[in-house]
Design a protein that fits this description.
heterodimer; A: mainly beta; Immunoglobulin-like; six-stranded mixed β-sheet; about 0% helix; globular; B: mainly beta; 11 strands
């Protein structure tokens, strides 16, 4: 079974600064998807960014970007120009190319300091 | 509807009581998923429907858990004889098709068993 590890239970960042959240995963598959989801207190999981494993180029969505290292099985999320609204739980997730279910990490709680 | 709707938002059950949790996916979404999120953990897969067919129920923790989607739209997750370890947030997600489509999560039902 695939496992996803987030080793930082909590992180904090000053408003307007940059923060990086770490994620590693274990799989024997060559094709898969990786995701970062944000979960605010409302509990709804909101997609932040997605990466296809077959793409070498790192995904970017506005202030959010990833550093995808396939050989190292590492998938970190960088948040630039942090805003108060970025404060939430962030979950890294894996999905097989042919499967349907997500495998989530245990999450990182991000605090943004004004 | 515009999003995935789950009800109730909160449920308190006495140990041994049966509960039913409802998920109303986005209209026309073929695939529907249930996840269980224990406190301080990431969501864990419970079951998956494609239309009315339950294609994967490998994540259901015991035979006390039962899910259905009889008409391929609304789904109900039923837990019989609830136990304290069932306390968690139950998240529902839907997606337009199979494969790589955007998943939309609901805000979940927080179940507390006392």
């Amino acid at each position: 079974a695939q496992t996803v590890t987030q080793s930082q239970p909590e992180m904090s960042v000053q408003e307007a600064e940059t923060v990086t959240l770490s994620c590693t995963y274990d799989t024997s598959e060559s094709d898969y998807y990786l995701f970062w989801y944000k979960q605010p207190p409302s509990r709804q999981m909101i997609l932040v960014i997605r990466q296809e494993a077959y793409k070498q180029q790192n995904a970017t969505e506005n202030r959010f970007s990833v550093n995808f290292q396939k050989a190292a099985k590492s998938f970190s999320l960088k948040i630039s120009d942090s805003q108060l609204g970025d404060a939430a739980m962030y979950f890294c997730a894996y999905r097989s190319f042919t499967g349907n279910q997500f495998y989530f990490g245990t999450g990182t709680s991000l605090t943004v300091i004004p | 509807g515009a999003g995935v709707s789950q009800s109730p938002r909160y449920k308190v059950a006495k140990r041994g009581q049966d509960v039913a949790l409802r998920c109303d996916p986005i209209s026309g979404h073929v695939s529907l998923f249930w996840y269980q999120q224990a406190l301080g953990q990431g969501p864990e897969f419970l079951t998956y429907f494609q239309n009315e067919a339950q294609l994967d129920k490998s994540g259901l923790p015991s035979d006390r858990f039962f899910a259905e989607r009889p008409e391929g739209s609304v789904s109900t997750l039923k837990i019989q004889r609830t136990q304290q370890e069932d306390s968690a947030v139950y998240l529902c997600a839907s997606t337009r098709g199979t494969g790589d489509y955007g998943y939309t999560f609901g805000s979940g039902t927080r179940l507390t068993v006392v």
